[in-house]
Write a structure and sequence with these properties.
single chain; 174 residues; alpha+beta; 18% helix
Amino acid sequence: MTRHHMAKALTATALLALVQPTSAEQDTGNDETGFLSSLEGRFSGNGTLQNAGGSSRSLKCQFNGDQEGPRLSLDGSCTAAAIFSATIKIDLRHDPKSGRYAGTFRESTGTVANLSGTRQGQRLTLAFNETAESVRPNPPATLTISRQQGEVALTLRGSPPGKGQNLDLSLREN
């Protein structure tokens, strides 16, 4: 092999290495897809909604998770006795370049929020910032979605404490 052919072969090999994702990049994408697909299916359970004033309601909820590639949609409904019912829609997408999640939270009684954050292990932690579209805007909060053997936990915590609403849901896979 001449020097010229060897140089061409080395250049081609170097270019090929640059355009192919590394195994770490491939693993991250697969890890995220695996995490998102673990939230696919039907879930139901109970929880509590606590208002800033201290009053709380016991909730019974059902959610359907639908995952397609880097996207996840969680559609749910929650009721408190016969007094209160609301639908919740959480749409998320994972950006493999940044490693971050972004999306929206919509609740039928008027809460609309933008979501953004990252995942560590089985816990997705998202900044929850209500938009001008919200009927009764609350201060920024944190929405956490955790996956544990057959269960999903959704937790919303207002910041600063005592402001806004807190939500705790524990859902089992159906």
